[in-house]
Amino acid sequence: MLSDVSTLPGVQLGDFLLQFELEEPSESVREIARRELRETPDIVKPAVEELRRLLEEDKELTVPLERDAWLIRFLRPCKFYPASAYDLIKRYYAFKVKHHKLYDGLTPSKEQNIFNQNILRVLPNRDQLGRRVLVLELGKKWNTSKCSLDEVFKGCVLFLEAAMLEPETQICGAVVIFDMEGLCMQQVWQFTPLFAKRIVDWLQESIPLRIKGLYIINQPYIFNMVFQLFKPLLKEKLRSRIVFMGNDRELLYKYISPKCLPDCYGGTLSIPNVNGPQWLELLLICDTEFAAINSYGYKKK
Q: Are 174 and 163 in contact (CB under 8 A)?
């Protein structure tokens, strides 16, 4: 971590401890890293050194060069090709500059509303492939007068920045479930071409995390109006990872095992459901870490 948080953040929920997993990955996950990301000692060490050299030569960026773990965070989604990781870092920070009104001072303590609205959460467990599962409920739970789409975006940024701290998530990636049950026209009108472009640019070009699937469930017919904004902007790689599932639970189970899903999706997960306010409690413990993340990037001119 980049801040002085010295203890592993955690929130006790009954018998279950909700926490970020900052420890080194298991042997089975390390095998995934070797097989899919070329993560072997003879590749990792020179890749870290080369990425550090590239960043040292870049006088416009301020980054934590001395922290190997931070460098590896960007090397993993680029399969340890230093030049690609360097380009990703530049895109990551350029996106923050372009959308500075959303990113400046972005911390959980300043964005509590989105979590208290309880339309955005991460499942407490990983799926059968070790991936984090982010759930957005942008239908019947979403009151547009109380929570804007920009707030939803900032909540997603905070969750995925936290996920990027976890070595296992860096390796296995994340999937997103969009639960659109109850979507109405008032909500559809919140989506604009500019918002669609920002989201697609973020997912395709700027986020240093392996987004392995975007699963649309319970969507009504009018969701097609929303998707038409996004469709022309999608490259094949991201387009191929979007799956429209409707109410077909068997199709959902082909991608996420029912053992890893809560009962609201027909799953058999025994771990208690964790709601937005409970996740906020954990994120608030890491507020100084998000402040540290915000301290790096392109130097202000």
A: yes
